[in-house]
Backbone:
């Protein structure tokens, strides 16, 4: 059987666009939806994108579900989601910020506090917002663009990161208000308990069977539930938390790689190195140096 190839969209896909401003391969800011190489054909996005619709409308697909995006709408896409663009009105205007997966990881080392929001966004990526919230996001967009264009500022990446972090917290608060009126299903509640359990035990336990036992379900049922709710496997979630903590320790801790491998309960530094490279494509030493 012929394997179906799903194109990947990252910042390299739009790097030569003159109407987009960049910081390295981590961040892009622009106004026109035409700059994004998206069509009706499904593409996998490797970025977090914050977008607002000012005027007009567009019809998009996120994870094969269709959404009508109208004026005063806020849209968030997360890394690894499937996106499509079906229709754009002639009078459509918007504002867009695209951020790499690594940039997001570095902004939110304490991912746990935002986890409920990120889980909600998986199935609710679009929200109609009021004029005040729209103005707030557009102010961030304008201010951020000014700072990104200050090429003589050697700290512009750090400045941009700080502004983005503040903006993401405001965006998360907007979606938090929408969450308050949505009742969680039993599967969603169990999934959140699974994630909470990972954060409690990830330094010592990395098997699906352990977490299934904690939740009093079978590994097969837990794997199926997690895949259905989040689109990722239970093993991928466990690895994501371990790798995120590894990255934080490698970047911000004075500990050696050997000490970090011990803290994360790997048998030795070699096992830690293999695990890290398997999930990131680079060694812990190489990541620590970038």
Residues:
């Amino acid at each position: 059987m012929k394997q179906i190839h799903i194109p990947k969209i990252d910042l390299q896909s739009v790097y030569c666009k003159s109407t987009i401003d960049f910081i390295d391969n981590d961040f892009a800011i622009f106004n026109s939806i035409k700059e994004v190489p998206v069509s009706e054909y499904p593409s996998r996005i490797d970025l977090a994108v914050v977008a607002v619709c000012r005027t007009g409308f567009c019809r998009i697909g996120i994870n094969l579900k269709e959404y009508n995006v109208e004026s005063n709408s806020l849209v968030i896409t997360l890394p690894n989601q499937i996106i499509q663009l079906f229709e754009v009105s002639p009078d459509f205007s918007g504002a867009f910020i695209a951020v790499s997966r690594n940039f997001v990881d570095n902004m939110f080392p304490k991912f746990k506090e935002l986890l409920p929001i990120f889980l909600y966004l998986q199935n609710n990526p679009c929200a109609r917002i009021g004029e005040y919230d729209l103005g707030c996001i557009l102010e961030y967009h304008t201010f951020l663009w000014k700072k990104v264009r200050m090429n003589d500022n050697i700290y512009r990446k750090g400045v941009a990161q700080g502004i983005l972090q503040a903006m993401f917290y405001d965006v998360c608060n907007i979606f938090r208000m929408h969450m308050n009126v949505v009742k969680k299903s039993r599967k969603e509640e169990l999934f959140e308990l699974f994630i909470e359990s990972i954060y409690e035990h990830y330094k010592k336990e990395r098997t699906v069977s352990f977490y299934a036992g904690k939740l009093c379900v079978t590994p097969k049922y837990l794997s199926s539930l997690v895949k259905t709710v989040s689109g990722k496997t239970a093993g991928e979630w466990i690895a994501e938390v371990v790798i995120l903590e590894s990255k934080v320790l490698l970047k911000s801790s004075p500990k050696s790689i050997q000490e970090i491998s011990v803290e994360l309960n790997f048998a030795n530094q070699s096992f830690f190195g293999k695990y890290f490279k398997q999930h990131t494509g680079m060694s812990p030493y190489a990541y620590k140096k970038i």
Observations:
- The mean pLDDT is 86.
- The longest strand covers residues 47-55.
